[in-house]
Amino acid sequence: MAQSFNRTEMLPALPPPISQRGAVKWMNENLLSSPLNIFLTVVGFAAIVLIIVSAFPWWANSVWNAGSLKECRDIVTASAGEGASGACWAYLRVWWGAVIFGHQYPVDERWRPILTFGLLFVALAPVLFAGQKRSLLIILGAVAAYSLLTLSLAAAPAVPFVLALLGIAALLVLSQVQPAKLLWFTLAFPPLCFWLLWGGSIWTPIVAMAGFAVLYFVFRAASPVIGLAPAAGAGLVAAVLWWLFAQGPIVENLDAILRVELLFVPSDEFGGFLLSTVIGITGITFSLPIGILLALGRQSDMPIVKMLCVIFIEAIRGVPLITLLFVAAFVLGFFLPPNSNFDLLLRVLILVTVFSAAYLAEVLRGSLAALPRGQYEAADALGLDYWRAQRLIILPQALKISIPAIVSSFIGLFKDTTLVTIVALYEPLKGITGLVRADVNWKGIYWEPYIFVGTIFFVFCFGMSRYSKYLEGKLKTDHR
């Protein structure tokens, strides 16, 4: 009689078939899943190979050290033969400073925007990666290395150089001990940025920021008595009075006691990516809160508030940005008092910000409308007032929904900074046409400057896009 056998141990799991794992599976699912996909894959691969084969000699014959375009071509001919072509990157040795900082920004002061750019990432780190000590360590460590290298190359004065490195080192330690405290540096960065870029007395941005403290204290003191909206108006009036009448005398008195200043650089000396970054970062920073207020105002039950927000949003969205820039440059001066000096860059910043805010308001209004009515009813059931309900329940969900659209608007805003060339501001593309290609030594150069500028724009925009994907994944709470 046959004896039965029972297995006493499990067989080890076998790996999946080669067609169901790794690169083969990915290719079968994404590139070779149907006859049409196979055809498109072959055509796309052939196109990529053709582009690489055609462009490779031009990249391989690149010249990095020459005094003119003619010298570049002579070097290519001598090394690769008659009729060969090659990229002439040697122009960067002459014009990189004008493309990055603008041709009028003082050379000896370039360490200031270099330091400001590094500190920008320190200010953004606690906002983008709140409480993540490892990410904060990586970012601040990279900023420290960047500052050490670039400030040395820019020949920064010894005192600012040492103070900058000590400050970054202190913030690096703080990020590992009490990372939440880094938000205080984020709040302090705007006046510090203004002082580093424009210069002048250090007391000017400090006293200007004190105006916001006046607004806050007046609002807190008046809101229990007259309500939130009137208290906000009273705080705004108090801040404006502070800026108009108190700021100047206070700055003069503080300068008389302790004078700390940098060389003043007027706005018309800004240019290149420095100008684009200032406009883009300012527009992104201020347009989001303004857009949130406009979106809430458009959904308000108060007819006057709703009507004003609708008129503002539709009026701004119905006009091209280039028209608003013309208004900022030429028309706005007719409405100002005689002999008034309203900085052109400040006018551009204001109109770019309100333009972006109007579009963001519609993005956020759509996300607010997408929330189920039950969320509003739940806030009412918890006994929350309007602002607490918005802060704790409604806006966090609406902002999460609209992250892709918000970041898309930010990317569009940053790229639209090139439009300021029409009001005689030297953004990067204006620097190429007005400076590089106008130089007789480099007359005829075409692809290289635009590739260089396009690469920097791509790095900025791609970085924002990837952070958007990271934030979406981090905030994803569904269970699909």
Describe the structure.
Helix 9 (203-226) runs antiparallel to helix 10 and helix 11 runs antiparallel to helix 18 (428-436). The radius of gyration is 28 Å and the shape is globular. Among the domains are: 107-197, no CATH class; 200-262, no CATH class. It is mostly helical. It is built from 19 helices and two strands. The relative contact order is 0.08.
For the sheet with most strands, the description reads: 2 strands, antiparallel
Mean of pLDDT: 85
Question: Any idea what the shape is?
Answer: globular
Quote the distance from N terminus to C terminus: 55 Å
Could you tell me the strand content as a percent range?
A: under 5%
Radius of gyration, in Å, reads 28 Å
| Count of helix runs | 19
Give the key terms:
single chain; 480 residues; mainly alpha; two-stranded antiparallel sheet; globular
Write the layout of secondary structure elements.
Blueprint: H1 22-30, H2 35-60, H3 69-80, H4 91-101, H5 111-128, H6 133-153, H7 158-177, H8 182-198, E1 200-201, H9 203-226, H10 228-257, E2 261-262, H11 272-298, H12 303-317, H13 321-331, H14 344-370, H15 373-381, H16 386-401, H17 403-416, H18 428-436, H19 447-475
Antiparallel strand pairs: 1-2
Provide a compact summary of the structure.
This protein has 19 helices and two strands. The chain is mainly alpha-helical and 480 residues long.
